[in-house]
Amino acid sequence: MSAAVQQIARRRTFAIISHPDAGKTTLTEKLLWFGGAIQVAGEIRARKAARHATSDWMELEKQRGISVTSSVMQFPYRDCVINLLDTPGHEDFSEDTYRTLTAVDSAVMVIDSVNGVEAQTIKLLNVCRLRDTPIVTFINKLDREGREPIELLDEIESVLGIQCAPMTWPIGMGKRFRGVYHLYTDTIQFFDPQAEKGTSEIIQGLDNPRLDEVIGEQADELRMDIELVRGASHTFNREAYLEGKQCPVFFGSAVNNFGVQSLLDAVVELSPAPLARPAKTRMVEPIEPKFSGFVFKIQANMDPKHRDRIAFIRVCAGRFERGGKLKQVSTGKSLAINNAITFMAQDRNTTDEAWAGDIIGIPNHGTIHLGDTFTEGEDLQFTGIPSFAPEHFRRAQIKNPLKMKQLQKGLEQLAQEGATQLFRPTTTNELILGAVGTLQFDVVAHRLEFEYGVDVMFESCSYATARWLRGSDADLRALADKSPANMALDGNGDYVYLAPNRVNLQMAQERFPNIKFLETREIY
Ligand code: GDP
Asked: Where along the chain is GTP bound (predicted)?
């Protein structure tokens, strides 16, 4: 195997998705700890606590230096290089989260054993489904009195529409939680919250008398459970997993370190190495010798006065080397990349290169846009970077009408960056902002003030959702005649239907069956 093939085959790039409070931060921290990337558990938590202590955007701003470097956590584990991409989950939940999922090859879904499948889990899984991203499920908090495991699997299957293949099975829960049985290695791992890694002992075989010694009457319960589970559940099928149709399921307790190592091992053993990516003209294979990648996220950086920002590029093929020149395909310009950020946590010497699967950050002053492709010269354009129908809307107003031009320019640029979406109704001069998470509005207001010198006010407006329209000119004209107040253009000049409520949207869809009302739109 060539060095390049080897380097790429050892990459695992994934994100964790979950509903708030299911345990994503805890699990992230434990994964880093098991991976040797942090010495003391608690570092991530401290950061999150700081983030939560205030909802003031100015404070968030101060945290940014940290959040840039923590957006991607890279560490070696076994023979692999793991890239764990952070997806903000709480009030800073936004389109960034969704787009980050386009930059991974797989995801870990955390489910709280008490609460089961929750609203945000459903949304995030639907985003993963756009690309059939393979999902590993971790059912967390088995140390609490949760729901019956079989019921949880049923719920995942029926609500999320994905088959479950249990890899481990819990022995009791809450006060009676004693560990897990691994269905494929026929081993039992005993839970001990006092033990350093959450595990006191591992034994081989369900019939092992040691099992009865350690957990008494629960041993026979387990044997019966396993017989049932083997009969009633799906067996793991790697193909189905890679196609996003089946998820292997692990049980554990992240806060107690339990089950975390099995999960990390599963990422190494089961999850895919970097996959081929579609571009407009062809598929791009990760082992191609020439570099290519796309921008999935842009983050304003420490010094907003200089419009200083970092473009996060997912490397799709080849190797990145510091000092090399890359072509920004959208402008045709060639950029010398000397100051790229790479994310290897431990070994600073290796940070001068990155391979397919890795992420690099490129500082710039607003010249790099969301969805941009970079290559060594070829005119490639990666596709599949989505915009999502916003769920929150605001009307932008300014106190000083002389600043109208700056406001428009600022909003256009922030929309290009993906910080917000911008809609212009066809019959009025309003500027309507759309967002997936409301914190996006605070960010935009703050940045308009500091970067563009515009004091903006946001008024609530009566839209509930938006759909991108695809149809013949005649059909679109007919729709515009019928509902002029609902028609708008987005930042790219695409027609959009702004609906005050679901009923209105449904009626428009029924009346114009030849028009497609799209909930997601690809930027490219
Ligand atoms: P996030 O919002 O998904 O990032 O969740 P956190 O990691 O912040 O966890 C939410 C809460 O659940 C915190 O109080 C954690 O200490 C707690 N938690 C996480 N894992 C476990 C677990 O295995 N058992 C129990 N009992 N609590 C947990």
From this structure: 18-25, 86-90, 140-143
